[in-house]
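New here. Invent one.

***
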Amino acid sequence: MYTILMPKSTIKPKKIYMDYASSALSASANPSAIHDLGVKERSKLEDARSKVAKILNANSNEIIFTSGATESNNLAILGLLQRMNFFSVARSLASLSHSFKKVHSLPHIVTTNIEHASVLEVCKYLEKTKQAKVTYVPVGTNGIVDPRAIKKALGPNTILVSVMYANNEIGTVQPIRDIAKEIRHFNKVNPKQNHKIFFHTDAVQAINYLPINVAQLGVDLMTFNSAKIYGPKGAGVLYVKRQVPIRGIMFGGNQEGGLRPGTENVASILGLAQALTKTEKIKNEEVKRLTKLRDYFFNQLSHSNILTNIRITINGDLKNRLPNNINITIPKIPSDLLVIELSAYGIMASAKSACKSGDGKTSHVIEAINPKTQDTDGSLRFSLGRDTDKKDIDYTIQALKEILTKLKKWYN
């Protein structure tokens, strides 16, 4: 620690910012800077970290701020794999003669076939580059994975299980606590393993409506972002339980405990903490309100004459699903056409995850629960929010009736 002795001065004290190379002052000072403004930004950042940690029932040093859920998911999977030194093991194996190249010698990851692209595409990349073996456990026709199927997939080389808390397309809620119990039991009865299996969950869609106490859930890593909880875009969180072996996957700085280099987006992070605080405060009442609206939507679909000539399928379990999710399939009418028609009525719905919208392909989630689905079968996701009311549901049902009447030539 430096001790600065200030001589007596006739100059009147003032603030002059001369650290523009670190951060333009119009944004905010760099929280890594050691001058007065930087220290103040750091204080704000750490206060936000403490708020998030308290809500998750975690420690402050277990909260890593990122740019969003996609980065957090990548960091969780790749960071764990790298830290456990399996990359170097895989490369060593690859250099041996062909007879010694055994796939089962690679690190093993277990996930499901309905995960978000930011998990699935990382896993597919690791398979393609022969850096890991991945088991994609199929969900049932109700969109829910059986914890016993996860248990069956575990093996001596398994290092990570990644199962999303709630699906972003069909809203089904996975039995996270039961999966965590199966993993803990496997670790307990296999003490000779030189590593334990860690559990990651993508909680992006769950954060608004489901319990997020990480200790009660039994997870080692958990992902969510700001935009889904009515906070600013550009901020996300990766919860990393103490002693989970993880390292950064980018280079350039020591921010976020060395796991996420780059100047923190303090403004968005503060917004994230504020949004999460509000979300927790109103969660119970909002769940009750949206559950009623969701069930009303389903009821209107089932009892309306909209079904006279059309077989509408509701996708996903009706009970174990998010309170704001309605996902349906309408045969023989393309999803994109339905979305555009609804948009003309001022109704903004989607065919699938926004990250994959517009690619013209059937949702991998819908295919997973109904393999007979055709590209010409249109799936729609209606997701409700804080501004949704009963009048919105009534208007949407009426618009859907008119659209399907107009498009009846598609299914006659």
Q: What stands out?
A: The longest strand covers residues 325-330. The longest helix spans residues 266-303. The domain at 36-277 is CATH 3.40.640.10 (Aspartate Aminotransferase; domain 2).
